[in-house]
Amino acid sequence: MAVKKHGHLHHGKTTRDILDAADVLSKAGLKTGDIFLDAGCGDGFISIVASSLVGDEGQVYALDIYPESIKKLENEIKNKNIKNIETFVADITEKIPIKSDLVDLCVMANVFHGFVANKEVEKSLSEIKRVIKPGSTFAIVEFKKIEGTPGPPLSIRLNPEEVEDIISRNGFKVSGTIETGLYHYMVLSEKMK
Ligand SMILES: C[S@@+](CC[C@H](N)C(=O)[O-])C[C@H]1O[C@@H](n2cnc3c(N)ncnc32)[C@H](O)[C@@H]1O
User: Fold this and answer.
1) Are 36 and 103 in contact (CB under 8 A)?
2) How far apart are CA 127 and CA 122, in angstroms?
3) Residue 133 burial (C-beta neighbours within 10 Å; 0-12, 13-18, 19+)
4) Which end of the chain is more exposed for a tag (fewer CB within 10 A), N or C?
5) Which residue has a Cα nearest atom 2 of ligand 1?
6) Domain annotation for the chain: domains and CATH numbers
7) What is the pLDDT of residues 153-168, one digit of tens each?
8) Residue of 1, 18, 46, 64 to test ligand 1 pocket, by largest number of atoms within 8 Å of CB
């Protein structure tokens, strides 16, 4: 698949060293047997942790538009002999290649500000909304809007209130915003029934 030209894609970036996947997933409520989607997974470090939390009964879908990142994740999956992660090279703003009303928890970490900057909010959120079960959780993790590294330029970072406002206008009911680690916050929401 050809990589589309977007403004802010951050191909090949990972927050593996600064974001605690286990903290994100426990605060977002991931359980054994869940179907989990890592939307814009990068090298998939969140998916790797999710795979052991959901266990043999569960399923992890890891998706990114950047083939090199998916290749990296596939190598890790092979080396660790993981059986419950399915990977996709796909564009969230076009089509997520999974069935509707399937996902128990979708985490989108460090991706959403790019969709806002590129004016791709409606297209991306309508696909995310399609694949999440009604009443199930959508968690957006973003860098706090503070000066300095790590993270994207301050001008494209979002406040929690901005994220909450955008998703509530796109079919999600916000349940709250919490801190995760030094640099990030997470907005938790439910797909409206
Ligand atoms: C800053 S990285 C974050 C990666 C990972 N979630 C993390 O926190 O380490 C943003 C990721 O979003 C992916 N991405 C951007 N636009 C996308 C789209 N339209 N569809 C799928 N993935 C996309 C990029 O390829 C990149 O891997």
Assistant:
1) yes
2) 9
3) middle
4) C
5) 13
6) 21-191 (3.40.50.150)
7) 999 999 999 999 999 9
8) 64
Residue 22 CB coordination number (10 Å): 13
pLDDT tens digits along 26-68: 999 999 999 999 999 999 999 999 999 999 999 999 999 999 9
Distance CA(169)–CA(178), nearest Å, equals 20
Rounded CA-CA distance 75/78 in Å is 5
Enter the tokens of residue 16: 């593996």
**Both tokens of residue 113?**
């500000």
Helix (H, G, I), strand (E, B) or coil at 74: helix
Going from the Cα of 40 to the center of ligand 1, the distance in angstroms, rounded, reads 4
